[in-house]
Amino acid sequence: MANITLELGFAAMCGKPLIIAKSKEAAAPSDFTRTDWIDYDLKDEARFRKKLGQALDTISDLAVFEETLLDVALGARSIDCAIAFERANKAFLLTREDRVLDKAEEIKRRLDAVGDIEAIADLERLKSEITTFIQQGRRALADPAVP
Q: Percent of the chain having pLDDT more than 70?
């Protein structure tokens, strides 16, 4: 159980929304006393499916919201590249869509246009993070074994 709790905590820290399902009879671990979950009751599968569908719809809505915020950031006259990248990161985690990586590349192009970026450490770090993000995202999309 500790391993599962650790994995759920890491996923939540990385911005992945969680849908936790447990049997109706199971007691929730003490770590989850303030966490929502969906109870699965063999006698009421329709309710479980409805609640699961609602949770998945909420995640879809969140994905649209994050990508909309990314588009707003990219459309700003004066872009905050760090915030735009954060939105790209969240949107990709939620959608796994190639178009989000294309938008991350736009952020990187804007950083490239700044000029002597090496003189500003946080911009150089951000550019490096965006480059790594794009590379890892493209590899994940190219590998059908990656969920």
A: 89
CA-CA-CA-CA torsion for 59, 62, 64, 69, nearest 10 degrees? -160
Sequence-distant (6+) residues with CB within 8 A of 119 are none
Over the stretch 24-82, which tens digit does the pLDDT of each residue have? 887 776 666 656 778 888 889 999 999 999 999 999 999 999 999 999 999 998 889 99
DSSP string of 3-71? HHHHHHHHHHHTT-----EEETTSPPPGGGTT---EEE-GGGHHHHHHHHHHHHHHHHHHHHHHHHHHH
Q: Residues 22, 40: contact at Cβ < 8 Å? A: yes
Rounded to 5 degrees, φ, ψ at 38 are -110, 125
Place of tokens 């969906």: 38
